[in-house]
Design goal:
The structure is a single chain. This protein starts with 6 loop residues before the first helix and ends with a helix. Helix 13 packs antiparallel against helix 14 (about 425-460) and helix 15 packs parallel to helix 16 (about 510-525). The relative contact order is 0.04. About 40% of the residues lie in helices and about 25% in strands. Strand 9 and strand 10 form a beta hairpin. Bound molecules: adenosine-5'-diphosphate. Adenosine-5'-diphosphate binds near residues 568 and 579.
């Protein structure tokens, strides 16, 4: 308000001079406001320069035109003139006109009618160009709509951090309505631990800096944390920074997706890293991009990360390089996977591995850029395969040798049979024929026995009949067994046993068999005229028996393997007798079964061999009288006995009966169970040699029937069978047999049985 007492104000009102006419014209023509004077019917009587310019007319061209002609909307023009005629003043009326070039022109029109005698005679008209203002308003509205409808939260804050605006998306994102948010500090949506960050934002904004796509966390009304990407820009007013606008984009989903991806990658990595298969990702030049723990371990590293950047060619045996290179070159987009077995260099030496190689990336020319190999160690499988092949080869060799070994003794036997037939009564010839045949038969029997023993051992069915045994007697038996071999080759055999008697808990037959095998090997694998020693001494609480020869020797590489089944050293100058390669395997099994151990020693080929056996033995103090195998055998068989031979193998039965007859006994023969019962009834035998596997009635049934007879109760019944298991013996005993003997039935056994008859 102006102060009337102020002399300056007073002067300006009181002394305002009137404009001179040219000054007035100058003022009107120079104004940027369009001015015109129009008649009551709308004819333009006068218009200033600004009005002409606004509509694109040359000065003076508007005079005489009707205002209605300039209007885009004739009806609106008519109404306007009507109102002016009625004397109504118009203020800021939005009107659309045509410029001279036809372009629309929005103006704001203010008009005041000049009236005389109650009638409007003309009107003063002012026009203000509204196009620019409208455009500005439209832009404002558009911007406002963008802000309102934006999916991003948009808000502004003053420089002191007070929220000034808050769009709909901000309401949705943070849960506060605009009303709740505006006027509050921005910390409304900042988690307490991030206040410091917000403070630093305001600091930077004050310096005029902008914060661009900053990923952080904000707090919603319900307390939930939201991951947002923030872009904050300072707001200037007249060069001053007065606040900031912030756009917050919700990136929770993206963050969660990222986290899920990271999690799945971590899980995948964990699987890959911990799996037993080796995994290595690499470029074709060999640069390792990734390796897992199994791969790292296989090349002697504990940390797979150390391998990144190393060259994987270093870990492939050099001779495999061409193959692997060709393989990598064969990977194409059409055939991206190839499998291969190769030797892989590792810290444990070179191992066999099976690799699956997969192309992961090709360049635009189809050239391999990245590949991955996954490998499993198949060394054990390879070894097993090799061992299997080896075993198969040895088995085939064995079968061939077996045929050969069985045929060898058969030829002399057959020859001697012929000799016997022609020898008539030549006692010398007959004796020689007999000796040869007996010897050759022994060879066959030993072979078959060994085979059966091996079969029993491999099936875990060999049982030892343990008793107190004198070492010397077992050695003695073995020496007797091999004497003919030693004599044949003119070897010298030296046996050195300690003076004291050494007792073992052992199966006497098996113990002797062990030494027999070692001695016969020594004889076999020593050139004629060699020296063989058997030496025994107490050692380590047991007894150590060494069988030594100065023969062909054993290469160091085979010292352990020769104990395997069918293992044989390729001795080029071997003696004629080759063997089956099962003797040592049998010896080792027997020694093991006795709780002992065996070892082969040799300085090498041609330098002789030494087999060292250790067996547990009784300490000297615990010496007792040995119970020898025949300690409880009855005295010598005496007198003529009645023997019933029962066997469905006629040759076996008849030859046995013949032998018994020659020994002075009376015999009867039956070929099946029923016949046996009939024969027994008539013959009343003292001794029955009874085969168990018989037609019609088996041996056990026969024995049971015989035992029911009064005369049968006194007879000695011997079960003769191929089955020697404890259960078989038990079955025989239960059926009433006195003895159970496994085939072949030797003369020795028969004599034992006859002695039992005498004793009974
Ligand atoms: P076989 O004698 O029937 O071949 P063995 O199992 O008894 O089978 O022996 C296996 C192999 O060990 C023999 O083939 C032989 O090559 C070797 N060997 C055994 N004993 C001796 C030894 N005293 N001297 C040299 N080599 C031996």
């Amino acid at each position: 308000m102006s102060d009337p007492s102020n002399p300056a104000t007073q002067r300006s009102c009181a002394t305002q001079p009137r404009l001179r006419e040219e000054e007035l014209r100058d003022f009107v023509e120079g104004a940027s406001l369009g001015m015109q004077s129009i008649a009551a019917d709308g004819i333009i009587l006068w218009a200033n320069a600004a009005q002409h310019a606004m509509l694109g007319y040359e000065p003076g061209e508007l005079i005489g035109l009707n205002l209605a002609e300039l209007h885009a909307d004739r009806e609106a023009a008519r109404k306007l003139l009507e109102r002016l005629r009625r004397g109504e003043e118009q203020r800021d009326l939005p009107v659309r006109l045509h410029a001279k070039d036809g372009q629309p022109k929005d103006v704001l029109l203010t008009a005041s009618p000049v009236r005389q005698d109650g009638l409007t005679v003309r009107s003063r008209c002012f026009m203000f160009d509204a196009t620019e203002r409208r455009r500005a308003a439209e832009t404002d509205a558009l911007l406002a709509a963008i802000v309102t409808d934006s999916d991003d939260a948009i808000l502004s804050k003053s420089i002191d951090g007070t929220i000034r605006s808050w769009n709909a998306a901000a309401e949705r994102l943070f849960g506060h309505t605009a009303e709740e948010a505006i006027g509050n500090p921005i910390t409304l949506i900042v988690p307490p631990e991030l206040y410091e960050e917000e403070r630093s934002f305001l600091e930077r904004l004050r310096r005029g800096e902008r914060i661009d796509h900053f990923e952080t966390t904000r707090l919603a009304k319900n307390g939930k944390r939201i991951s947002v990407s923030l872009t904050i820009s300072p707001i200037h007013d007249s060069g001053r920074i007065v606040g900031a606008s912030a756009v917050a984009r919700d990136i929770t989903e993206r963050k969660e997706a990222e986290r899920a991806l990271q999690d799945s990658e971590r899980r995948y990595r964990a699987i890959v890293e911990s799996q037993a298969e080796m995994v290595c990702r690499f470029r074709p030049d060999g640069t390792i991009l990734f390796a897992n723990l199994a791969y790292a371990r296989s090349v002697g590293r504990t940390n797979p990360d150390e391998l990144v950047g190393a060259n994987f060619w270093n870990f492939i045996a050099r001779e495999e390089w061409p193959t692997v290179r060709a393989l990598l070159e064969s990977l194409t987009p059409e055939k991206p996977e190839v499998r291969i077995e190769n030797r892989f260099r590792t810290t444990d030496g070179v191992r066999w591995t099976y690799w699956t190689n997969r192309a992961l990336k090709f360049d635009s020319n189809g050239k391999l850029v990245e590949a991955q190999s996954t490998g499993v160690d198949i060394t054990d499988r390879k070894r097993a395969e090799e061992a299997l092949r080896d075993a198969d080869r040895r088995k085939n060799e064995f079968l061939a040798t077996l045929g050969h070994e069985l045929r060898n003794p058969l030829a002399p036997i057959r020859n001697m049979l012929e000799v016997l037939e022609r020898a008539d009564d030549d006692p010398v010839l007959r004796r020689r024929a007999h000796d040869t045949m007996s010897r050759q038969l022994d060879v066959i029997v030993r072979l078959v026995d060994d085979l059966l023993d091996v079969a029993r051992i491999t099936r875990g069915r060999l049982q030892l009949r343990m008793q107190r045994v004198d070492l010397a007697s077992a050695v003695q038996e073995a020496v007797e067994d091999v004497q003919y071999l030693i004599d044949e080759a003119h070897h010298e055999l030296v046996v050195r046993l300690p003076d004291e008697t050494i007792y073992l808990d052992a199966d006497p037959v098996r113990l002797a068999q062990t030494f027999t095998n070692l001695l016969s090997n020594a004889a076999k694998y020593t050139p004629d005229g060699g020296r063989i020693e058997l030496e025994a001494a107490r050692r380590d609480g047991g007894v150590r028996v060494v069988v030594r020869d100065n023969g062909l020797g054993i290469p160091p590489t085979e010292l352990e393997t020769i104990f395997g089944m069918f293992e044989q050293v390729d001795h080029s100058i071997e003696r004629g007798h080759k063997g089956l390669g099962i003797g040592l395997s049998l010896v080792k099994s027997l020694v093991d079964l006795h709780g002992g151990r065996i070892e082969a020693r040799s300085e090498g080929l041609g330098l002789g061999s030494e087999f060292v056996v250790w067996l547990p033995a009784h300490p000297p103090a615990a010496e007792q009288t040995a119970v020898t195998a025949d300690a409880d055998a009855p005295g010598r068989a005496s007198g003529r006995r009645r023997v019933l031979v029962v066997d469905d193998n006629r040759d076996a039965a008849e030859s046995l009966a013949m032998l018994l007859g020659m020994l002075g006994h009376e015999t009867s023969i039956a070929f099946d169970g029923e016949e046996a019962l009939g024969a027994a009834e008539r013959f009343r035998p003292d001794l029955v040699l009874l085969d168990i596997g018989l037609p019609k009635l088996d041996g056990h049934a026969v024995a049971r029937e015989l035992r029911k007879k009064p005369w049968g109760a006194r007879a000695v019944i011997v079960a003769v069978t191929g089955w020697g298991q404890e259960s078989d013996r038990e079955a025989s005993r239960a059926a009433g047999c006195d003895w159970h003997v496994t085939k072949p039935l030797t003369l020795e056994r028969i004599e034992d049985a006859l002695r039992a008859v005498s004793a009974g």
